[in-house]
Every structure is written in structure tokens, then in C-alpha cells.
Amino acid sequence: xxxxxxxxxxxxxxxxxxxxxxxxxxxxxxxxxxxxxxxxxxxxxxxxxxxxxxxxxxxxxxxxxxxxxxxxxxxxxxxxxxxxxxxxxxxxxxxxxxxxxxxxxxxxxxxxxxxxxxxxxxxxxxxxxxxxxxxxxxxxxxxxxxxxxxxxxxxxxxxxxxxxxxxxxxxxxxxxxxxxxxxxxxxxxxxxxxxxxxxxxxxxxxxxxxxxxxxxxxxxxxxxxxxxxxxxxxxxxxxxx
Length: 241
Known about the structure:
The chain is an alpha/beta fold. It has 6 helices and 8 strands. Helix 1 (about 50-60) links the parallel strand 3 (about 40-45) and strand 4. The two termini are about 25 Å apart.
């Protein structure tokens, strides 16, 4: 099957408890037209998938990746202002990872791409799970942990087990440049490839590209988002083999 489709993945459980709908995470996935070269787990903190995010998943599939996004809010009734981070988010990642493995994808050919707090999770996944590569966009919790159960990223980064790319905007108040610089230094202490890239303004979001007038390819925001997207694709292309 090629193109977008919906599915669900079983959450890991202990014991012999019977499966129920609450023990599965809904997924949105898109497959390449030909054989898959690997899979990308897309962690995105939104109840709805924006068209730019779907375009990104579609582009990943065109490059040969199975792009699959777990619905991270599936435990929370709508409307809800609950932030998604912690054990539930990692459980959803594990279920999605298992779903890819069951489809014949090797573990070292699985990448993870996360945005915001889910970008924080993507880095932490790369310290504890057998993934091949990770990319975080606007990952928070750099010097102060997002929760009591999670380390600050400056403390986690030296323990990276998979190549990690971090993309940040210099005007993002939740990730000040001085904190990003500290993360850059911490990442350099790991035993794997790591790269932290900062962009002027906020034009670093592959899921929220800047609005620019038609024909204005020279717009700095447009150029930044093109560069950010290229880096994401190049990172997975280089490290998922």
C-alpha cells in the first residue's frame, strides 16, 4: 500500500492482560511507492496534523522512508490543555518503533523526528533506544528538565547513542541562544555525530514554514526553512544505512 493511511500500534505491556483499544496508539502513516529504505517516527504535539507537516511526511516517503506519526493525544479527551511529555510519549514511540520493525524495517534504519517537547523526547530516545538517527526541532528543557523523570538536555546529550541533529531559532524565548550554545558544547562530548544549528528569527520549522509572498525566493525566512528541511533529509540519508 502506498500513500497515507491510518493504523494503530500495540503498546508494550507486561503480563497476560487482554488487549483493549486503550492499549493501542493510533497512527498516521505514509509509505513510499517502492521498497522502503527505513522508517521515520514523527513526534508532533498537535491534535491535528497541519498541511505543512503532512507535506513533510509525504516528502520523506518520496525519499524512500516509511513516515509514521503516533497520535500523542490519544489518551486525552478533547479539548484538553494537557501537555504531552513523559512516560506516555515514550510508550507511544516504542509502540510505533515496534510497528515499523514488524513491517520489516531494521532498528538501525529507524529515525526519529520530534518538534518542541516531542523534540526533547527525540533526543532522549537517541540516548536510550536502538535507533539509527534523531532530529529535534525547537527541543525544550535544555538546562531545566521538562519533568522530574527526565534529565535536562545538557546532561543527556553526552550519552547520545545515535547521531543527533538539533535545529533552533535564535528568537525562540523557550530556547535562548546561550542555552543552545551550552547544548552544542554538551553534544560535542558524545561518542556519535552531533550537530546543533541556529537560524535567525524563527524560520526553522519544517512543520510551520514562514509565509512569504510568491516569487520571493530571496526572503531570508524562506531560505532558512529550505536549509532546515535539507538538513533533516541529509541527516537521515547520511546516518540511516
